[in-house]
Specification:
By secondary structure, this protein is of the alpha+beta class. It is built from 17 helices and 18 strands. The strands form 4 sheets. It has a 7-stranded antiparallel β-sheet, sandwiched between helices. A 5-stranded antiparallel β-sheet has the order 5-6-10-8-9. The longest helix has 20 residues, at 404-423.
Length: 482
Protein backbone atom coordinates (compact mmCIF):
# COMPACT_ATOMS: atom_id res chain seq x y z
CA UNK A 1 0.00 0.00 0.00
CA UNK A 2 1.42 3.41 -0.98
CA UNK A 3 1.59 6.33 1.44
CA UNK A 4 -1.31 7.99 -0.37
CA UNK A 5 -3.43 4.84 -0.24
CA UNK A 6 -2.59 4.47 3.43
CA UNK A 7 -3.80 8.00 4.12
CA UNK A 8 -7.05 7.52 2.21
CA UNK A 9 -7.73 4.25 4.02
CA UNK A 10 -7.07 5.84 7.42
CA UNK A 11 -9.25 8.86 6.57
CA UNK A 12 -12.13 6.60 5.56
CA UNK A 13 -11.72 4.54 8.73
CA UNK A 14 -11.77 7.74 10.78
CA UNK A 15 -14.67 9.61 9.16
CA UNK A 16 -16.64 6.85 7.45
CA UNK A 17 -17.85 6.71 3.85
CA UNK A 18 -19.91 9.87 4.27
CA UNK A 19 -17.08 11.74 5.92
CA UNK A 20 -14.33 11.07 3.39
CA UNK A 21 -14.39 10.45 -0.34
CA UNK A 22 -11.90 10.33 -3.16
CA UNK A 23 -14.59 9.71 -5.80
CA UNK A 24 -13.71 12.17 -8.62
CA UNK A 25 -17.37 12.85 -9.43
CA UNK A 26 -18.07 13.92 -5.83
CA UNK A 27 -14.86 15.89 -5.35
CA UNK A 28 -14.65 17.64 -8.73
CA UNK A 29 -17.39 20.29 -8.15
CA UNK A 30 -15.38 21.68 -5.22
CA UNK A 31 -12.05 22.03 -6.99
CA UNK A 32 -12.82 25.26 -8.85
CA UNK A 33 -13.25 28.64 -7.19
CA UNK A 34 -16.47 30.66 -7.53
CA UNK A 35 -15.02 32.98 -10.15
CA UNK A 36 -13.68 30.10 -12.21
CA UNK A 37 -10.11 31.39 -12.11
CA UNK A 38 -8.52 28.45 -10.32
CA UNK A 39 -9.02 24.72 -10.68
CA UNK A 40 -6.95 22.33 -8.61
CA UNK A 41 -6.68 18.67 -7.73
CA UNK A 42 -7.09 16.87 -4.41
CA UNK A 43 -6.34 13.62 -2.65
CA UNK A 44 -9.98 13.60 -1.61
CA UNK A 45 -12.56 15.57 0.33
CA UNK A 46 -13.19 15.27 4.06
CA UNK A 47 -16.56 16.27 5.49
CA UNK A 48 -16.36 15.90 9.27
CA UNK A 49 -19.51 16.24 11.34
CA UNK A 50 -18.01 17.65 14.55
CA UNK A 51 -15.10 19.61 15.93
CA UNK A 52 -13.74 16.39 17.43
CA UNK A 53 -13.71 14.77 13.99
CA UNK A 54 -11.98 17.85 12.53
CA UNK A 55 -9.31 17.63 15.23
CA UNK A 56 -8.71 13.92 14.66
CA UNK A 57 -8.56 14.40 10.91
CA UNK A 58 -6.06 17.28 11.19
CA UNK A 59 -3.85 15.08 13.39
CA UNK A 60 -4.04 12.40 10.73
CA UNK A 61 -3.03 14.91 8.04
CA UNK A 62 -0.14 16.12 10.18
CA UNK A 63 1.03 12.54 10.64
CA UNK A 64 1.02 11.94 6.88
CA UNK A 65 2.02 15.57 6.10
CA UNK A 66 -0.98 16.02 3.80
CA UNK A 67 -1.83 19.71 3.22
CA UNK A 68 -5.37 20.81 4.12
CA UNK A 69 -7.53 23.31 2.20
CA UNK A 70 -10.47 24.35 4.43
CA UNK A 71 -13.66 25.19 2.56
CA UNK A 72 -17.05 26.59 3.52
CA UNK A 73 -19.52 27.58 0.82
CA UNK A 74 -16.79 27.87 -1.83
CA UNK A 75 -18.07 31.35 -2.63
CA UNK A 76 -14.83 33.25 -1.96
CA UNK A 77 -13.58 35.82 -4.43
CA UNK A 78 -9.80 35.30 -4.15
CA UNK A 79 -9.25 31.58 -4.69
CA UNK A 80 -8.56 31.05 -1.01
CA UNK A 81 -10.49 27.77 -0.74
CA UNK A 82 -9.18 26.05 -3.87
CA UNK A 83 -6.33 23.48 -3.83
CA UNK A 84 -3.36 23.81 -6.17
CA UNK A 85 -2.72 21.59 -9.19
CA UNK A 86 -0.28 19.23 -7.45
CA UNK A 87 -3.04 16.95 -6.17
CA UNK A 88 -1.24 16.62 -2.84
CA UNK A 89 -3.87 18.46 -0.74
CA UNK A 90 -7.15 17.36 0.76
CA UNK A 91 -10.23 19.59 0.76
CA UNK A 92 -11.74 19.89 4.23
CA UNK A 93 -15.39 20.84 3.89
CA UNK A 94 -17.18 22.27 6.93
CA UNK A 95 -20.63 22.13 5.31
CA UNK A 96 -21.87 19.17 7.39
CA UNK A 97 -21.21 21.14 10.57
CA UNK A 98 -24.35 23.27 10.44
CA UNK A 99 -25.79 23.10 13.96
CA UNK A 100 -26.96 25.98 16.13
CA UNK A 101 -25.34 25.13 19.45
CA UNK A 102 -26.85 27.80 21.65
CA UNK A 103 -29.18 30.77 21.23
CA UNK A 104 -29.47 33.26 24.08
CA UNK A 105 -32.15 35.70 23.03
CA UNK A 106 -31.89 37.81 26.19
CA UNK A 107 -28.12 38.22 25.80
CA UNK A 108 -28.49 38.66 22.02
CA UNK A 109 -25.92 35.99 21.28
CA UNK A 110 -25.89 32.86 19.17
CA UNK A 111 -23.29 30.09 18.99
CA UNK A 112 -23.20 28.07 15.80
CA UNK A 113 -21.05 25.68 13.81
CA UNK A 114 -18.83 27.00 11.04
CA UNK A 115 -20.93 25.42 8.30
CA UNK A 116 -24.11 27.36 9.06
CA UNK A 117 -25.25 29.30 5.96
CA UNK A 118 -25.55 33.05 6.47
CA UNK A 119 -29.12 33.16 5.14
CA UNK A 120 -30.10 30.32 7.50
CA UNK A 121 -28.67 32.30 10.41
CA UNK A 122 -30.63 35.38 9.34
CA UNK A 123 -33.87 33.42 9.20
CA UNK A 124 -33.24 31.76 12.57
CA UNK A 125 -32.65 34.96 14.50
CA UNK A 126 -35.26 37.01 12.65
CA UNK A 127 -37.90 34.52 13.79
CA UNK A 128 -36.97 35.57 17.34
CA UNK A 129 -37.14 39.32 16.71
CA UNK A 130 -33.38 39.79 16.33
CA UNK A 131 -30.94 40.17 13.46
CA UNK A 132 -27.35 39.44 12.55
CA UNK A 133 -25.95 42.73 11.20
CA UNK A 134 -23.93 41.47 8.25
CA UNK A 135 -25.24 40.60 4.82
CA UNK A 136 -23.93 40.25 1.29
CA UNK A 137 -24.98 39.06 -2.13
CA UNK A 138 -23.78 35.49 -1.55
CA UNK A 139 -25.70 34.98 1.70
CA UNK A 140 -27.37 31.86 0.30
CA UNK A 141 -24.07 29.98 0.10
CA UNK A 142 -21.56 31.79 2.33
CA UNK A 143 -20.89 30.03 5.63
CA UNK A 144 -20.10 31.52 9.02
CA UNK A 145 -16.67 29.88 9.07
CA UNK A 146 -15.80 31.29 5.67
CA UNK A 147 -17.03 34.76 6.63
CA UNK A 148 -14.85 34.68 9.73
CA UNK A 149 -11.82 33.31 7.90
CA UNK A 150 -11.95 36.14 5.34
CA UNK A 151 -13.22 38.83 7.75
CA UNK A 152 -16.05 39.51 5.32
CA UNK A 153 -17.68 42.91 5.02
CA UNK A 154 -20.89 43.58 3.11
CA UNK A 155 -23.34 46.41 2.81
CA UNK A 156 -23.81 47.15 6.54
CA UNK A 157 -20.17 47.78 7.47
CA UNK A 158 -20.79 51.53 7.60
CA UNK A 159 -22.77 51.15 10.80
CA UNK A 160 -21.83 47.74 12.22
CA UNK A 161 -18.31 46.91 11.05
CA UNK A 162 -16.85 43.81 9.42
CA UNK A 163 -17.19 40.21 10.57
CA UNK A 164 -14.45 40.87 13.09
CA UNK A 165 -16.83 43.16 15.00
CA UNK A 166 -19.57 40.51 15.10
CA UNK A 167 -17.49 37.68 16.62
CA UNK A 168 -17.66 37.41 20.40
CA UNK A 169 -16.03 34.01 20.72
CA UNK A 170 -14.42 31.40 18.52
CA UNK A 171 -13.49 27.74 18.38
CA UNK A 172 -10.81 26.45 16.02
CA UNK A 173 -8.65 23.44 15.36
CA UNK A 174 -4.93 24.20 15.12
CA UNK A 175 -2.32 22.59 12.87
CA UNK A 176 -1.45 19.86 15.40
CA UNK A 177 -5.09 18.96 16.01
CA UNK A 178 -5.37 20.88 19.28
CA UNK A 179 -8.73 22.58 19.84
CA UNK A 180 -8.62 26.27 20.70
CA UNK A 181 -11.86 26.98 22.55
CA UNK A 182 -12.87 30.53 23.39
CA UNK A 183 -16.60 30.56 22.71
CA UNK A 184 -17.72 32.15 25.98
CA UNK A 185 -17.76 35.92 25.46
CA UNK A 186 -16.38 38.14 28.21
CA UNK A 187 -16.69 41.91 28.27
CA UNK A 188 -13.30 42.11 29.95
CA UNK A 189 -10.52 39.55 29.59
CA UNK A 190 -6.89 40.60 29.99
CA UNK A 191 -5.27 37.16 30.01
CA UNK A 192 -2.80 38.07 27.31
CA UNK A 193 -3.24 38.18 23.54
CA UNK A 194 -6.73 38.16 22.02
CA UNK A 195 -6.04 35.03 20.00
CA UNK A 196 -9.43 34.86 18.34
CA UNK A 197 -8.64 38.10 16.53
CA UNK A 198 -5.53 36.48 15.11
CA UNK A 199 -7.62 33.68 13.61
CA UNK A 200 -10.26 36.02 12.16
CA UNK A 201 -9.19 36.96 8.65
CA UNK A 202 -6.37 34.38 8.55
CA UNK A 203 -8.05 32.44 5.69
CA UNK A 204 -7.47 29.04 7.28
CA UNK A 205 -3.68 29.43 7.30
CA UNK A 206 -3.37 29.45 11.11
CA UNK A 207 -6.31 27.32 12.21
CA UNK A 208 -9.63 25.92 11.03
CA UNK A 209 -12.63 27.76 12.47
CA UNK A 210 -15.21 25.23 13.65
CA UNK A 211 -17.66 27.38 15.61
CA UNK A 212 -18.30 30.93 16.77
CA UNK A 213 -20.37 32.98 19.17
CA UNK A 214 -21.85 35.98 17.39
CA UNK A 215 -23.49 39.18 18.55
CA UNK A 216 -27.06 39.95 17.55
CA UNK A 217 -29.07 43.17 17.42
CA UNK A 218 -32.75 44.03 17.80
CA UNK A 219 -34.69 43.48 14.60
CA UNK A 220 -35.34 46.44 12.36
CA UNK A 221 -38.78 47.83 13.08
CA UNK A 222 -38.97 50.05 10.03
CA UNK A 223 -36.65 51.02 7.22
CA UNK A 224 -36.69 53.52 4.41
CA UNK A 225 -34.65 52.94 1.27
CA UNK A 226 -33.96 55.80 -1.12
CA UNK A 227 -32.51 55.84 -4.63
CA UNK A 228 -30.82 59.12 -5.47
CA UNK A 229 -29.49 60.62 -8.70
CA UNK A 230 -26.24 62.58 -8.43
CA UNK A 231 -23.95 64.52 -10.76
CA UNK A 232 -20.69 63.01 -9.44
CA UNK A 233 -19.13 60.77 -6.82
CA UNK A 234 -17.86 63.92 -5.10
CA UNK A 235 -21.47 65.00 -4.72
CA UNK A 236 -22.19 61.56 -3.24
CA UNK A 237 -19.45 62.17 -0.68
CA UNK A 238 -21.09 65.44 0.36
CA UNK A 239 -24.45 63.68 0.61
CA UNK A 240 -22.88 61.00 2.82
CA UNK A 241 -21.51 63.63 5.19
CA UNK A 242 -24.95 65.25 5.32
CA UNK A 243 -26.64 61.92 6.07
CA UNK A 244 -24.13 61.06 8.78
CA UNK A 245 -24.67 64.44 10.40
CA UNK A 246 -28.48 64.42 10.28
CA UNK A 247 -29.37 60.72 10.53
CA UNK A 248 -26.68 59.53 12.94
CA UNK A 249 -27.07 55.88 13.99
CA UNK A 250 -30.12 55.47 11.76
CA UNK A 251 -27.89 55.45 8.67
CA UNK A 252 -27.61 51.74 7.88
CA UNK A 253 -26.15 51.75 4.40
CA UNK A 254 -24.79 54.10 1.74
CA UNK A 255 -23.83 52.58 -1.62
CA UNK A 256 -22.75 54.40 -4.78
CA UNK A 257 -22.63 53.32 -8.42
CA UNK A 258 -22.06 55.08 -11.75
CA UNK A 259 -24.60 55.13 -14.59
CA UNK A 260 -22.70 52.39 -16.43
CA UNK A 261 -23.31 49.92 -13.60
CA UNK A 262 -27.03 50.67 -13.52
CA UNK A 263 -27.36 50.27 -17.28
CA UNK A 264 -25.48 46.97 -17.14
CA UNK A 265 -27.84 45.63 -14.48
CA UNK A 266 -30.94 46.77 -16.37
CA UNK A 267 -29.69 44.91 -19.43
CA UNK A 268 -28.87 41.83 -17.33
CA UNK A 269 -32.13 41.57 -15.36
CA UNK A 270 -35.08 41.33 -17.76
CA UNK A 271 -37.70 42.67 -15.34
CA UNK A 272 -35.59 45.40 -13.73
CA UNK A 273 -36.51 49.05 -14.02
CA UNK A 274 -34.58 52.22 -13.30
CA UNK A 275 -35.82 53.83 -10.08
CA UNK A 276 -35.56 57.32 -11.61
CA UNK A 277 -36.92 58.61 -14.91
CA UNK A 278 -33.99 60.87 -15.78
CA UNK A 279 -30.33 60.21 -16.57
CA UNK A 280 -27.72 60.74 -13.86
CA UNK A 281 -23.96 60.28 -13.89
CA UNK A 282 -24.00 58.66 -10.44
CA UNK A 283 -26.50 57.02 -8.13
CA UNK A 284 -26.65 56.45 -4.39
CA UNK A 285 -28.62 53.83 -2.49
CA UNK A 286 -29.30 54.98 1.05
CA UNK A 287 -30.99 53.03 3.84
CA UNK A 288 -32.22 54.46 7.15
CA UNK A 289 -33.55 52.16 9.87
CA UNK A 290 -35.13 52.22 13.32
CA UNK A 291 -36.01 49.54 15.83
CA UNK A 292 -39.65 48.86 16.67
CA UNK A 293 -39.44 51.26 19.63
CA UNK A 294 -38.28 54.13 17.44
CA UNK A 295 -40.22 53.29 14.27
CA UNK A 296 -42.66 56.18 14.67
CA UNK A 297 -39.77 58.65 14.40
CA UNK A 298 -38.40 57.32 11.13
CA UNK A 299 -40.60 59.17 8.64
CA UNK A 300 -39.84 62.48 10.31
CA UNK A 301 -36.14 61.72 10.23
CA UNK A 302 -36.30 60.74 6.56
CA UNK A 303 -38.05 64.01 5.71
CA UNK A 304 -35.42 65.99 7.61
CA UNK A 305 -32.53 64.18 5.92
CA UNK A 306 -33.71 64.34 2.34
CA UNK A 307 -35.47 67.70 2.47
CA UNK A 308 -32.23 69.13 3.83
CA UNK A 309 -30.26 67.44 1.05
CA UNK A 310 -32.56 68.91 -1.61
CA UNK A 311 -32.35 72.38 -0.08
CA UNK A 312 -28.56 72.23 -0.14
CA UNK A 313 -28.55 71.11 -3.77
CA UNK A 314 -26.86 67.80 -2.95
CA UNK A 315 -29.14 65.66 -5.11
CA UNK A 316 -30.57 65.88 -8.62
CA UNK A 317 -33.52 63.56 -8.04
CA UNK A 318 -34.63 60.99 -5.49
CA UNK A 319 -37.31 58.39 -4.81
CA UNK A 320 -38.09 56.61 -1.56
CA UNK A 321 -39.33 53.04 -1.76
CA UNK A 322 -43.01 52.82 -0.83
CA UNK A 323 -42.97 49.12 0.04
CA UNK A 324 -40.63 46.34 1.09
CA UNK A 325 -40.95 44.87 -2.39
CA UNK A 326 -39.71 48.08 -3.95
CA UNK A 327 -36.94 48.42 -1.34
CA UNK A 328 -35.74 44.90 -2.15
CA UNK A 329 -35.87 45.75 -5.86
CA UNK A 330 -33.56 48.71 -5.21
CA UNK A 331 -31.12 46.48 -3.36
CA UNK A 332 -31.30 43.83 -6.07
CA UNK A 333 -30.02 46.43 -8.54
CA UNK A 334 -27.01 47.02 -6.30
CA UNK A 335 -26.37 43.33 -5.59
CA UNK A 336 -26.53 42.43 -9.28
CA UNK A 337 -23.69 44.69 -10.44
CA UNK A 338 -20.94 42.04 -10.32
CA UNK A 339 -22.79 39.36 -12.36
CA UNK A 340 -24.09 42.01 -14.77
CA UNK A 341 -20.61 43.36 -15.45
CA UNK A 342 -19.24 39.82 -15.75
CA UNK A 343 -21.85 39.04 -18.43
CA UNK A 344 -20.53 41.89 -20.57
CA UNK A 345 -17.12 40.29 -20.95
CA UNK A 346 -13.72 39.93 -19.30
CA UNK A 347 -12.81 42.33 -16.52
CA UNK A 348 -10.20 42.77 -13.82
CA UNK A 349 -12.09 43.17 -10.56
CA UNK A 350 -10.34 44.87 -7.66
CA UNK A 351 -11.66 44.84 -4.11
CA UNK A 352 -9.74 47.75 -2.62
CA UNK A 353 -10.03 50.43 0.00
CA UNK A 354 -8.65 53.91 0.46
CA UNK A 355 -9.17 56.44 3.25
CA UNK A 356 -12.87 57.34 3.22
CA UNK A 357 -12.16 61.03 2.63
CA UNK A 358 -10.19 60.17 -0.55
CA UNK A 359 -12.50 57.60 -2.16
CA UNK A 360 -14.15 60.11 -4.51
CA UNK A 361 -10.76 61.52 -5.42
CA UNK A 362 -9.41 58.05 -6.18
CA UNK A 363 -12.26 57.14 -8.52
CA UNK A 364 -12.22 60.49 -10.32
CA UNK A 365 -8.44 60.49 -10.68
CA UNK A 366 -7.50 56.88 -11.31
CA UNK A 367 -10.36 55.88 -13.64
CA UNK A 368 -9.28 58.13 -16.52
CA UNK A 369 -5.62 57.30 -15.85
CA UNK A 370 -6.33 53.58 -16.29
CA UNK A 371 -8.32 54.19 -19.47
CA UNK A 372 -5.54 56.36 -20.94
CA UNK A 373 -2.81 53.87 -20.03
CA UNK A 374 -4.74 50.85 -21.33
CA UNK A 375 -6.64 51.95 -24.47
CA UNK A 376 -10.06 50.41 -25.01
CA UNK A 377 -10.68 49.61 -21.35
CA UNK A 378 -13.46 51.05 -19.20
CA UNK A 379 -12.78 51.70 -15.49
CA UNK A 380 -15.71 51.83 -13.11
CA UNK A 381 -15.82 52.15 -9.35
CA UNK A 382 -18.75 51.36 -7.09
CA UNK A 383 -19.37 50.22 -3.55
CA UNK A 384 -19.45 51.19 0.09
CA UNK A 385 -18.68 54.91 0.10
CA UNK A 386 -19.03 55.15 3.87
CA UNK A 387 -16.10 52.82 4.60
CA UNK A 388 -13.90 53.60 1.61
CA UNK A 389 -14.34 50.15 0.04
CA UNK A 390 -14.24 50.44 -3.75
CA UNK A 391 -15.05 47.64 -6.14
CA UNK A 392 -12.89 48.95 -8.96
CA UNK A 393 -13.52 47.02 -12.17
CA UNK A 394 -11.59 47.50 -15.38
CA UNK A 395 -13.58 46.13 -18.32
CA UNK A 396 -11.67 44.66 -21.24
CA UNK A 397 -11.74 46.18 -24.73
CA UNK A 398 -14.38 44.80 -27.07
CA UNK A 399 -13.40 41.52 -28.62
CA UNK A 400 -11.03 40.50 -25.82
CA UNK A 401 -10.93 36.76 -25.15
CA UNK A 402 -11.92 35.72 -21.65
CA UNK A 403 -9.01 34.01 -19.93
CA UNK A 404 -6.31 35.20 -22.33
CA UNK A 405 -6.87 38.90 -21.70
CA UNK A 406 -6.84 38.56 -17.91
CA UNK A 407 -3.62 36.52 -18.03
CA UNK A 408 -1.83 39.05 -20.22
CA UNK A 409 -2.88 42.70 -20.12
CA UNK A 410 -5.10 42.12 -17.10
CA UNK A 411 -2.12 41.46 -14.84
CA UNK A 412 -0.48 44.73 -15.85
CA UNK A 413 -3.73 46.57 -15.17
CA UNK A 414 -4.04 45.12 -11.70
CA UNK A 415 -0.42 45.94 -10.87
CA UNK A 416 -1.03 49.54 -11.95
CA UNK A 417 -4.26 49.81 -9.93
CA UNK A 418 -2.59 48.39 -6.82
CA UNK A 419 0.31 50.81 -7.22
CA UNK A 420 -2.14 53.70 -7.24
CA UNK A 421 -4.03 52.28 -4.25
CA UNK A 422 -0.78 52.10 -2.30
CA UNK A 423 0.06 55.70 -3.25
CA UNK A 424 -3.33 56.73 -1.83
CA UNK A 425 -2.49 54.99 1.46
CA UNK A 426 -5.03 52.24 0.87
CA UNK A 427 -5.28 48.45 0.93
CA UNK A 428 -5.24 46.03 -2.00
CA UNK A 429 -7.87 43.90 -0.22
CA UNK A 430 -10.84 45.45 1.54
CA UNK A 431 -13.19 42.53 2.21
CA UNK A 432 -12.49 39.56 -0.10
CA UNK A 433 -9.17 38.47 1.38
CA UNK A 434 -5.81 37.76 -0.26
CA UNK A 435 -6.18 34.07 -1.14
CA UNK A 436 -4.14 33.12 -4.19
CA UNK A 437 -5.07 36.00 -6.44
CA UNK A 438 -3.36 38.76 -4.44
CA UNK A 439 -0.61 36.91 -2.63
CA UNK A 440 2.22 38.01 -4.90
CA UNK A 441 0.97 41.59 -4.98
CA UNK A 442 0.94 41.57 -1.18
CA UNK A 443 4.54 40.37 -1.26
CA UNK A 444 5.44 43.17 -3.69
CA UNK A 445 3.64 46.04 -1.99
CA UNK A 446 3.26 44.96 1.64
CA UNK A 447 5.19 46.48 4.51
CA UNK A 448 8.33 44.32 5.04
CA UNK A 449 7.94 44.34 8.81
CA UNK A 450 4.31 43.22 8.62
CA UNK A 451 5.16 40.50 6.12
CA UNK A 452 7.98 39.22 8.32
CA UNK A 453 5.61 39.04 11.30
CA UNK A 454 3.03 37.14 9.25
CA UNK A 455 5.62 34.60 8.13
CA UNK A 456 6.90 34.20 11.67
CA UNK A 457 3.40 33.59 13.06
CA UNK A 458 2.65 31.13 10.26
CA UNK A 459 5.83 29.14 10.96
CA UNK A 460 5.09 29.08 14.70
CA UNK A 461 1.48 27.95 14.48
CA UNK A 462 1.88 25.72 11.43
CA UNK A 463 5.48 24.44 11.40
CA UNK A 464 4.70 21.72 8.84
CA UNK A 465 3.00 24.21 6.54
CA UNK A 466 -0.09 22.03 6.06
CA UNK A 467 -2.83 24.63 6.66
CA UNK A 468 -4.02 26.13 3.38
CA UNK A 469 -0.56 26.40 1.82
CA UNK A 470 -0.02 28.98 -0.88
CA UNK A 471 -2.73 31.31 0.44
CA UNK A 472 -2.58 34.72 2.13
CA UNK A 473 0.94 34.58 3.56
CA UNK A 474 3.49 35.44 0.83
CA UNK A 475 6.44 33.11 0.62
CA UNK A 476 9.74 34.46 1.95
CA UNK A 477 12.03 35.85 -0.75
CA UNK A 478 14.52 33.33 -2.05
CA UNK A 479 18.19 34.12 -1.33
CA UNK A 480 20.15 35.44 -4.29
CA UNK A 481 22.20 32.88 -6.18
CA UNK A 482 25.94 33.58 -5.72
Amino acid sequence: MTELESFRHAATELLGQRGFTSDPELVEPWLTDWRGRYTGKAVGMASPASTREVAMFVRLCAEHQVPIVPQGGNSGMSGGATPDESGASVVLSLRRMDAIRDFDRAARQITCDAGVILQTLHEKVEAEGLRFPLTLGGKGSATIGGLISTNAGGTQVLRHGTMRAQVLGIEAVLADGAIFSSLVPLKKDNRGFDLKQLLIGSEGTLGIVTAATLRLLPAIGERRVAWIGLPSISAARQLLLHCEETAGEALEGFEVLPAHCLQSVLAHLPDARSPLSGEHAWHALVELVETAEGADKLDGLVETVFAGAMERGLVEDAVIATSETQAEAFWQLRDSIAPAERAIGPAMQHDISVPVARMAEFVETVSPQVEDRFPGTRAIGFGHLGDGNIHFHVLAPRGATRGKWEASEGKAISAYVYNRVTEFGGSISAEHGIGQVKREELARLGDPVSLALMRSIKRTLDPLGILNPGKLVPLAPQPATP
